[in-house]
């Protein structure tokens, strides 16, 4: 059931599939969203659903996903189950007439993603991937700057997202069909590249695998018809910069860490042609080793770069889960079947790119 257009006064009623840590984080974030009501949760275990409901003050706990899908008091379901269940649980909710916000990755591959989208369109219900980076105010403003031409003709994107994780038993990042750095973190960098450049025409990739064959580090090179390129990295084995830099002929735009939900971006213009000529190299060589002068020059360069940098902070109320939920609710109230911030065409394109990356693995 989708909330009717114009029903701005009525709270949006949420249900959650799953009771794991992602579901818990979403429940906490939803508490900051205006006019949102978390009214039901479902798990395969009645005991687990009941404990979750008591923790978050949720009125109804269902001992099956089917029961929540059939609940008439639900407008939208957040799918927070393990990655390998996203397709089945999205289809369950959609076929019951419920709107869906599905945790990333949207599915395991392009085929599954197309099944979900086709079902949503067939049943005329709202559907959105919970890609909270694209709902970030900083991300949206930075993307608007790019599309307005502030960077001039675009050239290259460098994006990294990585954290050192331990492959402990039962860790979903390293076990199951949906495990690995590509699906857990690589989707953020791919979503950014898709938003900026569109569909790639050339794809190459390499990976480092665990002893069990799970990709723990991924490097991706994308090329585009207009000559632009993207260099993307995702890692579960080491900490990366967790930021992105987009280069254009007239400037560089940086999305600051954490890339999965940036709260700040900055723009640095390319040096103008009329700037004073640099100091003679021979003079630099003569004095640059003096410690006091070198320290002073470093501070001056830092101040100069800060003055040139147009940096914009955005601190939304709540968390990334809050803003993605608010975007879904905005769409429901408007009667939209998908989000302009996280369009299904981009979600499908990213999943198809992931398919190509897997075929292009260089072991």
From TrEMBL:
Keyword terms, alphabetized: Oxidoreductase
Pfam family, one: GFO_IDH_MocA
Record-annotated Gfo/Idh/MocA-like oxidoreductase N-terminal domain positions: 12-129
Name this protein carries in UniProt: Putative dehydrogenase
Domain of life: Bacteria
Domain (GFO/IDH/MocA-like oxidoreductase) ranges: 139-254
Similarity annotation: Belongs to the Gfo/Idh/MocA family.
Lineage of origin: Bacteria, Pseudomonadati, Pseudomonadota, Gammaproteobacteria, Nevskiales
Coiled-coil regions listed in the entry: none
UniProt key word Oxidoreductase: yes
GO molecular function terms attached to this record: nucleotide binding; oxidoreductase activity
InterPro entries documented for this protein: Gfo/Idh/MocA-like_OxRdtase_N, Gfo/Idh/MocA_domain, GFO_IDH_MocA-like_dom, NAD(P)-bd_dom_sf
């Amino acid at each position: 059931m989708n909330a009717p257009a114009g029903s701005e006064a009525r709270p949006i009623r949420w249900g959650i599939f799953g009771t794991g840590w992602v579901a818990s984080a979403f429940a906490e974030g939803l508490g900051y969203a205006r006019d949102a009501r978390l009214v039901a949760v479902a798990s395969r275990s009645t005991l687990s659903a009941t404990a979750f409901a008591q923790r978050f003050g949720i009125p109804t706990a269902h001992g099956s996903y089917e029961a929540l899908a059939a609940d008439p008091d639900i407008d939208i379901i957040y799918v927070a189950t393990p990655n390998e269940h996203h397709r089945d649980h999205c289809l369950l909710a959609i076929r019951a007439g419920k709107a869906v916000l599905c945790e990333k990755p949207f599915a395991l591959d392009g085929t599954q993603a197309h099944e979900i989208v086709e079902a949503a369109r067939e049943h005329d219900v709202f559907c959105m991937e919970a890609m909270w980076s694209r709902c970030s105010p900083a991300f949206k403003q930075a993307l608007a700057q790019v599309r307005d031409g502030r960077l001039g003709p675009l050239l290259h994107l460098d994006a990294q997202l990585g954290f050192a994780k331990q492959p402990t038993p039962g860790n979903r990042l390293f076990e199951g069909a949906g495990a690995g750095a590509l699906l857990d973190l690589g989707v953020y960098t791919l979503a950014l590249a898709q938003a900026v450049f569109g569909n790639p025409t050339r794809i190459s990739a390499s990976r480092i695998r665990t002893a069990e064959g799970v990709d723990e580090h991924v490097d991706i090179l994308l090329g585009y018809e207009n000559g632009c390129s993207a260099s993307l990295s995702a890692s579960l084995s080491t900490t990366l910069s967790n930021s992105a830099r987009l280069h254009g002929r007239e400037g560089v735009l940086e999305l600051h860490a954490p890339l999965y939900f940036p709260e700040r971006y900055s723009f640095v213009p390319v040096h103008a042609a009329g700037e004073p000529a640099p100091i003679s190299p021979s003079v630099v060589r003569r004095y640059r080793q003096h410690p006091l002068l070198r320290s002073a020059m470093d501070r001056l360069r830092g101040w100069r770069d800060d003055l040139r940098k147009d940096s914009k902070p955005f601190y939304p109320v709540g968390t990334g889960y809050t803003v993605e939920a608010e975007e879904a609710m905005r769409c429901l109230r408007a009667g939209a079947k998908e989000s302009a911030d996280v369009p299904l065409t981009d979600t499908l394109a990213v999943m198809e790119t992931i398919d190509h990356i897997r075929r292009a693995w260089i072991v």
